[in-house]
């Protein structure tokens, strides 16, 4: 027993792995003991042996080993243990042990389980609960071990006729389970489930008493309370009906069910009431089902196995399940009068069915009542079933993730007759959006085609049809804008074509043979102008989303990523527009250009055709100009339709087109070298009197950025990405000029000057208006006018006058105010109008400043594109100072602008890997000088960090061209400013970054730092100077000559001694930490001196340090600091050790000279000594 007792403890472990390991070890050990056991001979009653072997009366010791019998008894007793997971571990071990033993009977084990789980009167509630569960788990082990239906007789039984199982033991087990089910309501479902397991075991077995066992089960289940139906009896019926086809089920199921087959459609209504488990007046609902549980009843698993068996796909009854789901689930669990608890069960049934049904039968699950309840509980977080509704959404998303082809079917259901086209909006979720992102391209194409088919459906309600078109347009836009949806050219082109046709043309006839799907739809009614305007806006918005402006930074692939494809989306749309303009049979253009515009368009088309033929190094730039020209033409056409009259916006578009044509003609020229050779295209340079073509194009792009539309912004960024390689100094200056800070009042003045010409005519018309019209306009003013009127009335009342409001009496008309009152009224009225004027002016200033900030933010996109596309361009230098101005002088309302500028400086320019080419040295020196001036007066640490990064960037540029002298000069001036000026904004990090980045240049600053340290304004700044020297010694000594290093260390030796000595005399106030740093610097100097030249002598004066050590001991302030004294001793010891090493070296040299004088070289003598054998 000593080998198995320790294994019982781990059977109660909370770890499943430990329980299983303990079970395996225990069963294997007991199996070995049983194999070595010899059965005892049968003893007659009343004999002497029988009296001596008085023990348990369960008969286990007759055929089983003592260890096995003990283990069976202990495992049965352990089922009632409340410790951790004892019930699970002991039941698994008992099941496995009974499945391997052929020396016990089912009746024997059932008797032991029942005897060991009797309820005593003195038991507490918890003890009674443990005993009942012990009986349930024990009877379940008899079933699961196979002992209940085992046909083999006992292998070592004295009487070979003894069988392991019998009909009586089966009846006894079912009887105990029925009693257990009636004992406690919370045990009912578990007990009936165990009965079902016993029935399954009997059905699958080949015992001789199978029919009698099923008949007895039928009798005890139905005859006791025939008219009371519960989900448990339904489950038993579903198990017994296939096994007992000859039984008269009609008499058994009546009067509750109409059909003999319990899953027949005629019985679905009764099944719904039973499975709903709601006690009511009907007789089948008066059942003792206990409290509500959040888990589904096990009968649902049996029902699903009957309708949709997973093991036998050919036996699935999908049509019957659809009717069952409609009646039992949708009309019963999701009924109008159902409680939230029953609807919760309905959602669980839906989740279970979602994993079982085929893809073709998936729509049958989205029934009317289910969709209503689902949308209702999804829409608000405070609804009872909001969490389970979200779980349904997650299951649907996971289903689409595994089977993308199901996404199209699911979306049709969510937006169909039982759902809502605004499903995501109603539920405040992104269900449809997430499903679309998980679909494949074929599913997206099917979805788009179904949306187009909905447009072709006739609808008498014009308002509803308009709303449906708007919704479809929104769906198309969402498909394009959702970055998670896999993009494919065919369906994107289909959407763009549809927006083009709906927004720019009027469909006259249906075209079945055309390539455009938008023309395949019969024009049922004319679309409204609002819808056409929406389509035009969405067309431009989709083109903006489909036009990226990113550059890859992975080696040589950057230029290829920066170039556009052979045909961009805007070019494809432009091709479609040209095709539709020629198709007068099916469509009519909504805008008819004038003769001048037609000539301009013809010239633009010729320019585009010419740009498409450009090849070679300037191919990318030509594609960019082509994109800009096409985008301008499309924008002009949309703007012409959106505005009733030709205004400044349309004129600007025409001017932009003319500018693009002129720039393209000047920028790309052809040289005919030979008739047989291809034409080579180059970028030509115009005369100095005319603006450069690249500047003309960039000016057009800046005009695009002034408009707050995503389309123009995307086109401007993409175009500049393509033509950035052709940028010159004037181009960068033109971009930088847009970032200059201007007074908001000047911006307002410019706007007023621009609108002066347009408002002059309105003023003349206003002058002709009558006074009555003015009064009526004033009375009908907005809230601001009413507020002004109230202020005037208050001013009049405050001075004894009343405003003429409504009808007045004759007496009030005769009352007049004197001169003093009139003067007071005039002052008050003047104050009111002045405040009104200042408020308007302030609002204009704020709006102008906000617009200017947004415009600069868009211009910074061009700067970012240029730094990414052209990292080696020398024009990057011209960006530094303007970006610094934005970073350091932006206000709180321009925080985003300053952060973006700082990001370009720190992450783009300061981190360029490749050196700039053809740099202007004088200009770079000017920039560095300006940066140091700004750094000395910086107002924040963030600004100083940015200035430091930019300074290092310019230093790198200058060092690459050999201008280290200018760099050192400016850093020397900054060091002097940092040491001698108290208000200096520089800090030690500014110089440490420079020394760390350029150690060789930092070494050349050593004397400047040391010579300037005595001039420091305070001891703290002087200590920071020694910190810089520490960094220089650590990083830069290898860059200097040995004599220079030794002389500098000697000079540093004197300064450190003098500084610490002055601290001992209290001439300088130094903290203990600062003294420690000085000693560490001294130790660093000793080490560096020994590394540079091991033969140096008397570089450090050890006597001076010994004297300093005595002064520190005598100092009241530092004498008690053991750390400082220890550091001083370490310096002194290091110097003495170095001097001792020098004396030893001199002695070895003298000895070598004496040996050489004797005629034996010292090297030969050493070699001879090494060759002597050691034997």
From TrEMBL:
Q: Which Pfam families match?
A: DNA_pol_phi
Q: Which GO terms describe its molecular function?
A: rDNA binding
Stretches for region Disordered = 32-58, 745-780, 1139-1175
Instruction: Locate the compositionally biased regions of type Basic residues.
Output: 1165-1175
Give Gene Ontology CC terms.
Answer: nucleolus
Which one GO biological process term can you cite for this protein? regulation of DNA-templated transcription
Residue ranges, compositional bias (Acidic residues)? 748-780
Subcellular location as annotated: Nucleus
Q: Does the keyword Flavoprotein apply?
A: no
Q: Which InterPro entries match?
A: DNA_pol_V/MYBBP1A
Sorted keywords for this record are:
Nucleus
Q: Supply the name of the protein.
A: DNA polymerase phi-domain-containing protein
Task: Please tell me the species this chain comes from.
Answer: Suillus subaureus
